[in-house]
Specification:
The protein is an alpha+beta fold. Strand 3 and strand 4 form a beta hairpin. It comes from Novosphingobium sediminis.
Length: 157
């Protein structure tokens, strides 16, 4: 897919009204335009991004998914995620528009509190995934939780 094996590459396809992929949040370190309808964004190990995939046919929406993925180092174990090469640590995965819209609202709330979703603790994305799978309401990601994460992260090797 991409030229640098140390990066995680995400292929995004955009065919208006048929197949639309986009990054909800993320800070790619590189981008390559393949064609008018396809591009590849690349992320360094440890970076977190949200990939949204939507598709429809003559009868309506056939796919709505949102995956929050953490890029991994070359050779590191990872989950297979469609359109993500070589894969990544899958922190959150939801299917169906109601759940995707719910995660959008959670991301909007994080941004409204002044926190970049790229910097949120990976455990919080897992928490959201698990709570939604159990049909429970996820806890809010507050500035205090974020400060605690940043302090803990500073202590990690």
């Amino acid at each position: 897919m991409g030229d640098d094996p140390q990066l995680t590459h995400v292929t995004l396809v955009w065919r208006e009204g048929q197949h639309e992929d986009w990054i909800k949040f993320g800070r790619p370190v590189a981008e390559r335009i393949v064609s008018r309808s396809e591009r590849i964004e690349s992320y360094m190990a440890g970076q977190v991004f949200a990939l949204v995939r939507w598709a429809s046919n003559d009868f309506g929406t056939v796919r709505s998914t949102l995956d929050v993925v953490q890029a991994v180092s070359s050779g590191e174990h990872c989950a297979t995620v469609p359109q993500v090469d070589p894969g990544g640590a899958l922190l959150l995965s939801v299917h169906g528009w109601p759940k995707v819209a719910q995660v959008f609202r959670l991301i909007d709330a994080i941004e409204a509190s002044g926190i970049d979703p790229c910097d949120v603790a990976p455990e919080h994305w897992r928490h959201i995934h698990n709570r939604m799978a159990g049909r429970l309401t996820p806890r809010e990601y507050t500035p205090a939780r974020h400060r605690a994460w940043l302090q803990r992260k500073a202590l990690l090797p």
